């Protein structure tokens, strides 16, 4: 995205969507992890000023409010570790964090420790996490730069060594596709971010595939670093540039909760998702009732790949791990596929014991249409 010059800048719709997602996720993450641990940590490498032009809260302030509420209900402790390189923003952030702390009780302020460093995020953040002993305990790290790429793979790798660490990284593919081909320095910056040179194959991709290619390469990078499950959110900034927010976790529960958060994001922010497994790459509006047409296409193909079909638990797990959908949407999707005559279920009732097979007379890939005229 275009890098703002002022200490505090206007909050654009994609930032509002990102904040909504973060809040929804942290509201699930904090109580679950606090119920099992005495202390958990939230960290940001690119913390910002803590406030936007019209007074909207920045991500550290949003996080503080969520955690304060969780700590009201549990006698536990949390740490917020923040780094911000710009001196004016770091100063403003200190002011904003003091304000949000003052909104809550002294008891919360004692148990919700805030550490702000005016520093380049790397290696300052990692060093701090080590010193306070946050590595190896539940830790959520938001690396929300303007898109970079500016997160060294070595940092991701270090964080990924710990099973209880989760990361969320903002990744903008534009810089590399636009400038890296002809500039060796920029290419090296890409190598550092991806941890290898494989991403350079982007230069041979057709123009329409370049961003998707880089996004998938970056998800692979996160997996290489240890984050076995990844999920991405596609956002478009105010200059119509694409930005991906990529989440990495080593826990299926984290994935499940992030998906829940993702489908709860306020649709008025205009965020949409696209399932990489959907052959039609249909964009999904966020709606109260998610459009499950792509999920049905994905499940149909997955069922068709196995001569004996799939069980409902298999379909749910596949949905959780391989699509943007939630397992809770599987039963309805299978019922719709059966109503369309595409699959059969044995027994008829759809539950954990049900085997789902393709209806023999149907070709594997029935012609597909747009939403509403599905098969
Ligand atoms: C996208 S903004 C962060 C917004 C914030 N996470 C929020 O949602 O409210 C990126 C921030 O990273 C800061 N920044 C840029 N390079 C940095 C670096 N190397 N280390 C630390 N902070 C950096 C910028 O000054 C800016 O405030």
UniProtKB/TrEMBL annotation:
Q: Where are the annotated segments for Disordered?
A: 354-375
Top-level taxon: Bacteria
Against InterPro entries, the record matches this protein to: Tcm_partner (IPR031009)
Protein's name according to its UniProt entry: Three-Cys-motif partner protein TcmP
Highest classification ranks of the organism: Bacteria, Bacillati, Actinomycetota, Actinomycetes, Kitasatosporales
